[in-house]
Design brief:
The complex is a heterodimer of chains A (401) and B (240). With 401 residues, chain A is an alpha+beta fold. Chain A has two domains: 171 residues, no CATH class; 113 residues, no CATH class. In chain A, helix 1 crosses helix 10, helix 2 packs across helix 10 and helix 8 crosses helix 9. The longest helix of chain A is centred in the C-terminal third of the chain and has 44 residues. Chain B has 240 residues and is an alpha/beta fold. The two termini of chain B are 30 Å apart. The chains are: A alpha+beta (401), B alpha/beta (240). At the A-B interface, helix 1, helix 9, helix 10 and helix 12 of A face helix 2 and helix 3 of B.
């Protein structure tokens, strides 16, 4: 008998016992739909967070004052053993400029300031940055106008949202006031979309001008380093840490600054999300296994019910192998149909979940894994009943009522 | 004159013991030779072993001891697959309980042996259509077998048993569940079709009316052949 024709017989059997077949299929549908949609949550979260962290730039290293272990995987506010921080200084920055692995260094001075345009005031983060390092250290691109230049004084580059949300006006080449000091907007940045370290709501001005504005010429708010292509961000971060430890006369234990790489933050969050994904996957797998048991149960009943039919097939010359395949195809089909419907359902489910604010993402891989898994569950659940069916002696099977 | 004909089935010292507590011996040292084109009835009371005999002849079961030859091949040397191949190539069955596949319609039931044999669909259709026409079920071809009468079911079973053009047709109480009119129809179809094709027919039956239309009657009693009679005086073809 050809496999295609065995498949056709299997379809006929499934259709004949339609209610029970659908119940078995439903078990798989729920299992697959929950596995795909739950994993889509963790994939969605991962993608969302890596997009948001993208604002930091992969090769950007940030040094801030205050102790912490972020470089080695910590994330979040400094913990209880934070030391009284000794501020970072522009002198520190100059000392770090020549460390190997440093491509560009941007000693920044930031603060909240009132930005005024046409009588409208808004309190924004204003950052003094070194013009030659700015675009790379902030990992941004100019949408309109130009970037900051070394010769600039009272000019500003503003983030996307400053124009589109805060002032809702085209500020390019327009005068604004920052804490009463007049500036001219020379450039607008592309939307970064990032929420961590994003530039969308920021105003950037030259470092020297910021020193005047904030009346601060000694202490820097942060030092942002762009790691050179010849080094890895981690190696550069280690070199910077060692140099600063020496400069500040502190040890690892009394460290009064924090060196953060984008990778370290991303790694921490990713591993947290992976654990979440694993957890959700396990829960979903349980439901798929329960679905599989449902299929096995349905198949055992099916074999029992069809014992006579097995006898008929055998009396007509079907071999044990053909009967085995018939039942495996039957359960595999239940798995496949369940998998397909489950995959469809998971699209609906993940849209629903998205509406509740959790990001979801269904990738083709995930669909194939879900489908493959359901077929395997179907086949595996069918193997034992099918083997029983194949082994029945024809006379016994025919006698079965 | 009989011995000049080709032997299609042969049993030598066949014993069949069903395991159990206590074990039950259904057949004792059966010797039997059946020739091509013979129309035979195996008669005897319930529990005499006639169905067991039929199952052994049909390769549905294996003897405990002794030897069975189907078309010259030794059954005891066959594995499950070879037994299946022998059934699909050589033997057709008609059962008392019809044994149609409830999942398939009339056409597909008749077609099933050809499907199992691996005959391509285009070749199957004319054969099945022709047989359905002969048994008068062309208009029921798309009906499910659960929706037709007992007589019609058995006609489907007869068509199915012959679709493969077997050498031997084994009919186990084919009229046991039918009224007399349907019984006559079914027996007529079997006799007509098998005689046309030179198929050996073995009926297992209680029904003396069927036995009366066969040329050889084998009586089984307590697992032994009590008598094996050739009667020339058969009333074949004029059952009505």
């Amino acid at each position: 008998m050809k496999d295609l024709e065995i498949l056709e017989l299997a379809v006929n059997s499934i259709r004949y016992r339609s209610l029970r077949s659908w119940l078995a299929i439903l078990g798989v549908v729920i299992g697959v739909a929950s596995i795909i949609s739950l994993i889509s949550i963790s994939t969605g979260l991962q993608t969302q967070i890596s997009n948001q962290l993208g604002g930091l730039g992969a090769n950007v290293i940030t040094i801030t004052s205050g102790g912490g272990q972020a470089q080695r995987g910590g994330f979040g506010p400094p913990d209880a053993n934070t030391r009284v921080s000794k501020p970072l200084t522009f002198k520190d920055a100059d000392a770090l400029r020549h460390i190997s692995g440093v491509d560009k260094l941007d000693a920044r001075l930031s603060g909240r300031a009132t930005v005024t345009y046409h009588n409208k005031n808004s309190s924004l983060t204003v950052t003094g940055t070194e013009p030659n390092a700015f675009l790379q250290s902030a990992n941004v691109q100019i949408a309109e106008g130009r970037s900051l230049r070394a010769s600039d004084t009272n000019v500003a580059v503003v983030g996307y949202s400053v124009i589109n949300r805060t002032f809702k006006a085209d500020l390019l080449n327009k005068p604004i006031l920052i804490d009463g000091m007049p500036f001219r907007v020379v450039g607008v940045l592309n939307a970064s979309g990032a929420t961590f370290g994003g530039s969308d709501n920021a105003v950037f001005i030259p470092q020297k001008t910021a020193m005047n504005l904030f009346n601060q010429t000694v202490n820097a708010s942060s030092i942002v380093i762009v790691s050179a292509a010849t080094s890895t961000p981690n190696a550069t971060a280690t070199a910077l840490t060692n140099e600063l430890l020496t400069l500040h006369h502190v040890t690892n234990d009394t460290q009064d600054f924090t060196v953060t790489t984008a990778a370290s933050i991303q790694g921490t969050i990713s591993s947290a999300i992976s654990s979440l994904g694993l957890f959700l996957g396990i829960i979903a797998s349980i439901s798929l296994i329960v679905g599989g048991i449902g299929v096995a149960n349905a198949m055992f009943t099916s074999v029992l019910e069809q014992t006579k039919y097995i006898g008929i097939l055998k009396s007509l010359g079907a071999t044990n192998g053909e009967v085995l395949r018939l039942f495996i195809f039957e359960s595999g089909l239940v798995g496949l149909v369940g998998g397909l419907l489950g995959a469809l359902l998971s699209f609906g489910a993940s849209m629903l979940i998205s509406n509740f604010g959790l990001p979801t993402q269904i990738t083709p891989d995930l669909l194939f894994i879900g489908l493959g898994f359901s077929v395997i569950i179907g086949v595996v659940s069918g193997v034992l009943p099918a083997r029983n069916a194949a082994m029945v002696a024809p006379v016994e099977a025919l006698r079965y009522e | 004159m009989r011995s000049a004909q080709k032997t299609v089935l042969k049993m030598e010292k066949v014993n069949k013991i069903y395991e159990g507590d206590p074990p039950f011996q259904a057949l004792f040292d059966i010797n039997l030779e059946i020739h091509e084109g013979e129309i035979i009835s195996i008669i005897g009371p319930s529990g005499s072993g006639k169905s067991t005999l039929l199952h052994l002849l049909g390769c549905l079961d294996k003897p405990t001891s002794g030897e069975i030859y189907v078309g010259g091949s030794q059954v005891s040397k066959m594995n499950d697959d070879q037994l299946a191949f022998t059934r699909r190539e050589t033997i057709g069955f008609v059962f008392q309980a019809f044994n149609l596949a409830p999942t398939l319609n009339v056409f597909k039931n008749v077609e099933l042996p050809l499907v199992i044999k691996g005959v391509p669909p285009a070749e199957r259709k004319p054969v099945v259509d022709r047989l359905l026409e002969v048994v008068g079920l062309t208009d029921k071809r798309a009906s499910m077998t659960t929706k037709i009468s007992g007589g019609q079911k058995q006609r489907v079973a007869v068509a199915r048993s012959l679709v493969n053009n077997p050498k031997i047709l084994l009919a186990d109480e084919p009229t046991g569940n039918l009224d007399s009119k349907s019984s006559d129809d079914v027996i007529n179809f079997i006799l007509k079709l098998c005689q046309e094709r030179g198929i050996t027919v073995i009926f297992v039956t209680h029904d003396p009316r069927i036995a009366a239309h066969t040329e050889r009657q084998i009586r089984i009693m307590d697992g032994k052949i009590e008598s094996d009679i050739y009667s020339r005086n058969t009333k074949r073809r004029d059952l009505r």
